[in-house]
Amino acid sequence: MSRTQMMTGAICLAAVVALAFVPMIVDAYHLALAISLLQFTVLATAWGMFSGPTRYVSLATTAFFGVGAYTVAVLGEQLPWSLVLLIAAVIGAVMAVIVGLSTLRLSGVHFVIFTFGLAELVRQIVVWYEVNKTRVLGRYVFVDITQNDIYWQLLALAVIVFGTGWLIARSRFGFALRIIGEDETVARHCGINVTIAKVALFTITATFMTLVGAIMAPRFTYIEPSIAFNATISFEVVIMALLGGAHRLWGPALGAIPLTLLFDFLSARFPSTSTLIMGVVFLLIVYALPSGVVGLWERLKTWRPTASKMRGAQA
Predict the structure, then answer these.
(1) 241-274: buried (b, 16+ CB within 10 Å) or exposed (e) per residue?
(2) Taking the mean position of all CA atoms in its chain, how far away is CA 83?
(3) Pick the residue with more confidence: 93 or 140?
(4) C-alpha dihedral over 102, 113, 224, 258, to 10 degrees?
(5) In whole angstroms, what separates CA 148 from the centre of its chain?
(6) Is it the case that residue 34 has pLDDT exceeding 90?
């Protein structure tokens, strides 16, 4: 390990330790805001881990988030919290494998439409089950989990997500994914099992999204399908990842932080038009920053040496 990597690791560790003390020094409003920041940081980073190297645009975030939340609503009062989270993760992983095997042969707009339809399909199944079997559409979430617990669990999950992404990026698996993202045909000729690789990555990231939904469920206190499977979450995550830059592990976090603050401001000050403004923000990001903030920074770094060379030639 180089000296730079050791220094970076020490800074990251210090940042995590400092963030762990946030619930002890802020009021309830800022703690709620910090929970939202961590929630979208994990969701956007998990989304970028899959969509960055493979270049598949998934709108299935809501489906996995909602499954995690409903798992807690159903089992939260009957089982220990750690076991509920484990069951939620297993359900999310199994669902991701089934969905991945049936959809990752698609590409482009077909995959986007299918993942969007998946979230709606899962929501309608839950509605049908609740209405016809339990005769109750919504559920109360009564578990002994405080806001501080939610924050610390999301922080721990964020560390695991970044650690997993860092390890994947430096592994042969990550190298195979980058080849798949460039050209699937070339990847197959190189001997890479494209389907298995994509399904494996899709399952890992979907499990993280499911766990976010499960950890966030106690915060809602009461959930119903329209809350747990709110399609807006999928679009917000995509916007955040695109703003930061999905092709770098830490890029989506750069988009999640400012946009979470912006959406919180808009929903408080302009509740009736916040969705419209969010759509405009999405169009501006796609038009002005197609590679995100990270892509813009990387272009600026390559531009500066060229400019200095031109000045040297003119002299």
Answers:
(1) bbbbbbbbbbbbbbbbbebbeebbebeeeeeeeb
(2) 23
(3) 93
(4) 120
(5) 21
(6) yes
Query: Taking the model in full, what pTM does it have?
Result: 0.87
Burial of 74 (0-12, 13-18, 19+ CB in 10 A): middle
What gap in Å lies between CA 121 and CA 114, rounded to an integer?
Answer: 10
Q: How far is CA 121 from the centre of its chain?
A: 20
CA distance 188 to 71: 38
Distance CA 238, CA 63 (A): 14
* pLDDT one-digit tens code per residue, 13-28: 899 999 999 999 999 9
**In the numeric block, which tokens belong to residue 260?**
């979470």
Tokens 């439409």, located at residue: 113
- The helix (H) or strand (E) run that includes residue 1 is none
Q: Which residue has the higher pLDDT, 114 or 106?
A: 114
Look at residues 250, 291, 30, 85 and name the one whose alpha carbon lies nearest to residue 158.
Answer: 250
Two tokens, residue 268: 């408080």
Hey, what are 274's tokens?
């916040």
Which position has the token pair 């089982």?
79
